[in-house]
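Board notes (copied after class):
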Amino acid sequence: MTGLLAAASEREGREWTQEELDAMPAEELFQVYKETGDQSLKWPLVMRYVGLVKSIALQVRGVYSSFAQVDDIVNEGLLTLAGAVDKFDPNKGIKFETYVSKRIRGAVIDLARRQDWVPRSVRRKARDIDQASSELFSELGRYPTDGEMAERLGVSQDQYQEDLANSSMCNVLSLDALFEDREQTGGAEVADGACESRPEDSMLRQEMLEMLTRAIESLRENEQTVISLYYHKNLSMKEIAQVMEVSEPRISQLHSRAIQKLKLYMNQYMTGGR
């Protein structure tokens, strides 16, 4: 334990100078805050991770650009970050960045739901795409091609791809909704350490992860790449386009198609269709 940390343990109500705060690594500041509960340390700690919030905000902006300004997403992320600081246990061996990133993404989806920004025409087209893809999936026993989808919907392939991209947020929200009820009882968001006392939660979570892994493996290689770079490497659509050396609209199309397929796959699984 460093001198600063020892002093924190002894004097919970002490006043920290800006120089002392600046000198402490984020991990040590976390430890001091957890040991002392000193609320004067909370926002200095939160502000250490503003860059992470902004990074996630800019990243998700590429998908959710129609419903919120970046500032709205950042503000929502900061509130989530402030709550996560209190819930996070640094002794669990998980990086705080990993812990909080998922929660910020979830907060963005909640923000989209509250704002209910999606136009009726987009919702209608999203429902039509869902129905057509589900029907063709059942009939063909595989994911339908863009051409097959366009034919079923009675539109050109270019129009279908445009409608699919526009309905991307609906697909993300719907995919998230598929997990929500299961996760609330299945342990994906249970308190740290709860899985040890609720083994059924751990089993359900493992089952979901295995099924999602299969779903991702069923995607085309370029779709898997987009999903991996976006959700695991936290790259923006623009950055993914540079990595894959294609246009940003093309990346958006690949992302939308991948989400649609994952949603279809998981829906089939959860409704007993697979």
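Comment from the instructor: The chain has two domains: 3-115, 125-270. The CA atoms of residues 168 and 219 lie 17 Å apart.
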